[in-house]
Amino acid sequence: MTIKLITTDIDGTILKYDGTFNQPVYDCIQKLEHNGVKVILITGRMHKSAKKIADMFNLQNPIVSFQGALIKDNSKEEKTLYARYIPIDTTKNILKWSKSQKIDVNLYMDDELYSENENGSIKQYTKAQKIPYFIKDFESLKIENVNKVLLIDYEDAEHVTEIKNQLTKDYPELYIVKSTEYFCEVCHPEATKGDGVRFLQQYYGITKEETLAIGDHDNDIELLQAAGVKVAMGNGSDDLKNVADFVTDTVDNDGFVKAVEKYVLNAGANV
Asked: Would you say domain 5-83+191-265 falls under CATH 3.30.390.50?
């Protein structure tokens, strides 16, 4: 089966952990696009941040952000193709509970980032992604169109796991996942990366079998499950590797490129 769609995570997959990329990754993506294979970025990042990466790789395709809560085309109009929001009352309850847990919280509404405190977490997070943010008391905000709630503890990964487990128990109706060792992400139940892939498959008329998905962490499990070819990065989590058809090399060693060469470019298709 010819691969027509590649859905890829960003951080730890095409971008190294310092935010840079290797030239072979860039060249590979350009070759795919030149030969008619659509490359779609699917990320937990906010749209503003993800768009910068798409533009850096000269990608004109739709962008899936907030795990799958928001899909916009990459045009000047940035037309919204798909959106899912956390219920207002649920968001308020989670924000209130989080204050008692000594964990930093990022609140995303309408693709804007809010934090209550000018702390180290928000500075580290936004510096890495080069995005703006607003310091506001959450109770003073009109809570609506919440794309995602992100809970962060850069010092204690186990604390983040405990937060994730408690929220999963209290809100089984939501999609709650660790996207890194230090991040717990809370989204609408139809805001997984898998939902994003299925929307795009229908949007383009491309089948699951014609789709290759690649990622590196637990929030990419649904991403891989929605594709016919499932690839985990060598630096990926054990749980992700367990659902993959193939574990490629690490992000530092161009694992993305090696997977594409194995299943697309050197497979005699799309060249």
From this structure: no
